[in-house]
Amino acid sequence: MMSFDYDLFVIGGGSGGVRAARVAAGEANAKVALAEEDRYGGTCVIRGCVPKKLMVYASSYADMPETAAHYGWEINKGAFNWESFRGHLNTELDRLEGVYRKLLKNSGVDSFDQRARIKDAHTVELDNGDTYTAKHILVATGGRPVRPELKNAELGIVSDDIFHLETLPKSMLIVGGGYIACEFACILHGLGVEVTQYYRGEQILRGFDDEARELIANSMKERGIDLQVETDISALALAGDDSNGPVRVTRKDGEEVEFDMVFFATGRRPNTDSMGLEEVGVKLGRSSEIEVDEYSQTAVPSIYAIGDVTDRVNLTPVAIREGMAFVETVFKGNPTPVDHALIPSAVFTQPELGTVGLTESEAAKLGAIDVYATSFRPMQTAFADKPEKVLMKLIVSQESRKILGCHIVAPDAGELIQMAGIAIKMGATKEDFDRTVAVHPTMSEEIVTMRSPTRSG
Ligand code: NDP
C-alpha cells in the first residue's frame, strides 16, 4: 500500500478549511496539514462577516441619541472616531486569528503559513518548494472581490480595503446592488459618509423577495442614502493630481460626477488561479469555480473542494457544513451529501432582512399559494416619530399548507429568521404557526397572528 505524508492536506485556512482540518484530526484521528498564505480565519473572520457586523454595530449608534431623546434622555450626539474604532477592530481580529491558529494546533494539525498549489492528485507544493503527499486534498481557498472591467477600475476600492482605510471619506459612491453594496451603503451612511449607490438593474437585492427589496430600498432612501437604480458607470479618472484624491466617475448616460472614493461591490470570484487544478484534471465551471458532486468531490477522486471556491451557496455556515459533511464522508465512513435546502440567511442592512425559503414570485411559479404579509411601524421607533416600517411575510402552499418562504424586514431580522428557520425546516404549516401563542408586545408576534391571506395566486 502506498504511504502518504498526510491523510489530509487542506489548502485554505478560512471557516470551511479550518473546521474540516480540525474535525478530521480531532475526531477521526487523521494526520492533517493545512496551508494558508494570508491570515487564518479567511474572508469571514478577517475581511467579511465579522468586521462587517462590528461596523454594523458601530453605525447603529448614530441614531440612538435622537431616539433616546423621545424616551426622556438628554444625550449629546458626539462625533464618530474611525481611528479609535479601527484600533479596537484590529485588536479583536488579531484575537480571533489567534483562536483559529490555536484550534488547529490543539487538534494536532500541522499548519504552513504559505501558498500551496496542487502538483498531482496526491501532492501539494508549497511556495518554498517543499512538497507533501496526502491521501486526500481539500481545496477551501474561498473567493475574492472583483472590479468590473472598465477604464481605471483600480482607482476604486473593494470590500477587502474598507477595513484598512486611514480615514473615512466625506463622500463615497458604491457600485452594485447585492449584499455587500447594500450593507456597506447602510454602514457607511451611519458612520457619517455621504453615500451614493448606483445599481444597474431595476431594484437592489436581486433574487430576494420583491416586497422586502422595495421596503429596504425605500428605508435606505429615507435614511438619506442617494440610491439610484438603472444607473451604471463606464470609467473612472483621478479628479486632480493626488493619487489618493477624489475620483471622477463617468456614468453610462454620459454625466460626470465626483466622489472622494468609489467602492466596487460588484461580486466575488472563486480563488482558483495558478493552483494547478486544471492541470491535474479538476474541472472548473464558467465562473472558474471548482465543480463538485453532492459529496464535494471533484473530477479527481482524491481531491475535494468546499466553500466559496465551489460557488454553491456562498455563506460561512454553509462552508462549515460542507467541511463537516466531507469529514463524515471521507474519514468516518458515513457518506453525507450536503443539504442546501431551506438555508436561512440575513442581509445586514438597516433595517435587516432575514429570509428563508422561496420568494413570492418563485413560489407562485411552482403552484397555488397564499401570501400572508403585514407591514407596520414598530413600537420602539414609532414612539420616537420615526417613519421606519417592518415587514413580516409568509408564503404558504395552498395544497400542503406548508410554509414555503418567510421574509422579515425588521431590526434584528437575522436573529428572528434563525428561529423561524427551525420550524420551516421541520416542515411547519401555516396552522402550526397559528397554533403558537403570540409573545406580546413584540414585532415578531405578527408572524403567528396573520389570520387571512393578503392575496392568493
Ligand atoms: P452579489 O453577487 O450579491 O452582487 C453583486 C452586485 O454587483 C449585483 O448587484 C450585480 O448586479 C452587480 N454587478 C455585477 N457586475 C457588475 C458590473 N460589471 N457592473 C455593475 N454592476 C455589477 O455580490 P456581493 O459582492 O454583494 O456578495 C458576494 C456574496 O457574498 C453573496 O452572494 C453572498 O453569498 C456573500 N455575502 C453574504 C452576506 C450575508 O450573508 N449577509 C454579506 C456579504 C456577502 P446584477 O444584480 O445586475 O447582477
Question: How would you describe the overall organization of this protein?
Answer:
There is one protein chain. The protein is an alpha/beta fold and 457 residues long. The chain folds into 3 domains: 6-144 and 269-331, FAD/NAD(P)-binding domain (3-Layer(bba) Sandwich); 153-266, FAD/NAD(P)-binding domain (3-Layer(bba) Sandwich); 345-456, Enolase-like, domain 1, CATH 3.30.390. It contains 14 helices and 22 strands. The strands form 5 sheets. Strands 1, 2, 3, 4, 5, 6 and 16 form a 7-stranded mixed β-sheet that branches. A 6-stranded antiparallel β-sheet has the order 17-18-21-20-19-22, with helices on both faces. Strands 10-9-8-14 form a 4-stranded parallel β-sheet, covered by helices on one side. A hairpin with a 4-residue loop joins strand 17 and strand 18. Helix 1 runs parallel beside helix 10 (316-331) and helix 3 (49-60) runs parallel beside helix 7 (179-190). The mean pLDDT is 97. NADPH dihydro-nicotinamide-adenine-dinucleotide phosphate (NDP) is lined by residues 148, 175-181, 183, 199-201, 206, 232, 265-268, 314-315, 345-348.
